[in-house]
Specification:
Helix content: under 10%
Number of strands: 7
Order of helices and strands: HEEEEEEE
Number of helices: 1
Strand order of the largest sheet: 1-2-3-4-5
């Protein structure tokens, strides 16, 4: 409850509704992507398994235009996500 009370939902709480939704992007190919504002971002493969791309860190300082996610799973050939 305290986390929700301290969350930055933007001016007049315009982004609060996003805290309860996820968005899926399927660009074609082997992977799809799921973005859950205020939670996490994942990459999913066709078998249904997922890789954590990052956990919600908040908005970029100074505006509510860029959402930041960090501390994703380590990739064997590319490092941290």
């Amino acid at each position: 409850l305290e986390t929700k009370m301290n969350a930055d939902y933007g001016p007049n709480m315009v982004f609060e509704k996003l805290a309860h939704e996820c968005f899926e992007f399927k660009p074609g190919g082997e992977f799809s992507y799921e973005l859950c504002p205020y939670h996490d971002a994942k990459q999913k493969d066709k078998s249904g398994s997922s890789t954590m791309l990052g956990k919600w860190e908040g908005f970029e300082e100074g505006a509510h235009r860029v959402m930041k996610f960090g501390d994703g799973q380590y990739c064997w050939n590319a490092g941290a996500r």
